[in-house]
Amino acid sequence: MSTASPVIERGTAASRIAGLGVAAIIVLLAVAPQFLSAGAVDRMTALFIYVILAAMWNALAGYGGLVSVGQQVFFGLGAYFAIRLANAGLNPFVSLFVAAVIVGAVSWPISLFMLRLKNGEFAIGMWVIAALAHLLVNLDRLIQGETGTSLISLNVYDASTRRLTIYWLALASMTALLAVLFGLLRGSTGAAIRAIRDNEDAAASVGVRVTGTKRLLFVLAAFGIGIAGALWLASATTFQPKTYFSVQWTAYMIFMVLVGGIGTFEGAILGALLFFLIETWFGGTGVWYLIGLGATALAFSLLLPRGLWGTVEERFGWRLLSVGYRVRLASGTAGPTGETALPASITTHREKA
Amino acid sequence: MNAMPNGAILSATGIHKRFGALVVLDDIDFAMGAEEAVGIVGPNGAGKTTLLSVLSGAYPPSAGTVAFKGGDVTALPATQRCRLGLVRTHQVPKPFGGMTAFENVFVAASHGAGLSRDEAYEEALGSLKLCGVLGVANRRAETLGLLDRKRLELARALAAKPTLLLLDEIGGGLTDGEAGELVETIRELRRRRIAIVWIEHIVHILLQVAERLICMDAGKIIADGEPQAVMADPQVISAYLGGGPK
């Protein structure tokens, strides 16, 4: 091509600064337990788990168009397999991650028939799978039905070691999963994922492997949510099936993603943070807390349907952790507006849900 | 697979397509050579778009076989046919609405044509430029008007690097000036040795590019040959004017 060929930009100055900012925050979080109370360390662990849940549901629904209300199945199975593995004598911390790998492996055959379903059928079908998995887990004698059991092998560690180890494992898991997800969504597979979300037939007609790509995303989300469930088990130690297989987990994921901004990478993280703050401040108020969550969700869907980050992105053109592409036309081949860089304002409409 | 006629790139044999009791394609036989440009005309409901969908793999025929580049592709889904070089556009453009125009085309270049990142960038930009939509590269496809959506539809198909391009009414609703640009674009594709099947109602545009014309009516091919001869065929005139018994 000629010397005046356009250039493809993946990031902006702001996104490079944001990348450094994210790295700095992670380093700060890694040393934070030195300065935090035991209770605060536990709360932060919960936050990391919320971020994982929100990011995974957002990847599935916001980028892949796969809206599921049954993701608690992988949360519950992550915890269950961890209990089983630890009971079989595996180190409890190792069990958490092996359990997540098993969850990923289990999600593969589930995807074979679930991904044949579309839209609402898929959403509700996943809920059915979750209810089914819940019942099957209840049949395991080790679990003792709804009485449940606990990850007793963690008791060999003293409380402080346990707390810190789980904190760092949760932080490391969150960081690694976000990095993998970002890498995936930013690459050509990510473009295929968004294409499938927008029009599956058209995606197939330009050579995108529709089912295989969806399956990859489905299994990754199952794996990530499996880690989240196993980490939750490690920090709570008790396992009661109805707690882990409760649809509330998916309701939380949906809340975080919708409030934060569906289909934006920043939005899921922001939504998790907001949910965490609401829970921290109002979680003790019982039923009013749930009413408040519901009212917040309602207010957002009516007033800010794009969520916090979606609105910010549209209004100010901010792109911090962007997975998109922008074309900068070289001078001499300016666009019809006469500008060499095309205006940002028209590129920042919301990702379609 | 039997050897195909020398130089033939696509052949469809005994194609039937039924939707329930409705017969849309009724025993179609069609073959074309590499680098050939074939126009398809016919009244609404003749089965033109359905034929394109069967050829591109959007859905399977009820009976019959499709062969492309010497291999039987009847059982291959659209994704695989696209990767082999058999690419279509849609009559109603199907853009990836939440993605920018560039991203739309990039998907085709990296997945359909299987290009590496930098090659895909170049191919995508080249396709946008050729189709006159480079200026809206950063616009979300859902914000584009119909004309730009049609151009984007063509650009996206091109970025998949077809050897045979199936075009479905990309000229509808164009002004004379826009139609002239489109003809120039298609001529450029022919210079790139891309074979073309083009369904179009606006016959005078079609005749500027097509060296062979097929007329369909009621799921059958009723005329096939040199464009002027086909247009003068009594059966074709009858199909269009709806007159007389067949």
Overview of this protein structure:
The complex is a heterodimer of chains A (353) and B (246). Chain A is mainly alpha-helical and 353 residues long. Helices cover 67% and strands 3% of the residues of chain A. In chain A, helix 2 runs antiparallel to helix 9, helix 3 (72-87) packs parallel to helix 5 (119-138) and helix 6 packs across helix 7. Chain B has 2 domains: 1-85 and 162-246, P-loop containing nucleotide triphosphate hydrolases (Rossmann fold, 3-Layer(aba) Sandwich); 95-159, no CATH class. In chain B, the strands form 2 sheets. Chain B has a 6-stranded mixed sheet, sandwiched between helices. A 4-stranded antiparallel sheet of chain B has the order 2-1-4-5, with helices on one face. In chain B, strand 7, helix 6 (176-191) and strand 8 form a beta-alpha-beta unit. In chain B, helix 4 packs across helix 5. Chain B is globular, with a radius of gyration of 18 Å. Residues 1-5 of chain B have low confidence and may be disordered. Classes of the chains: A mainly alpha (353), B alpha/beta (246).
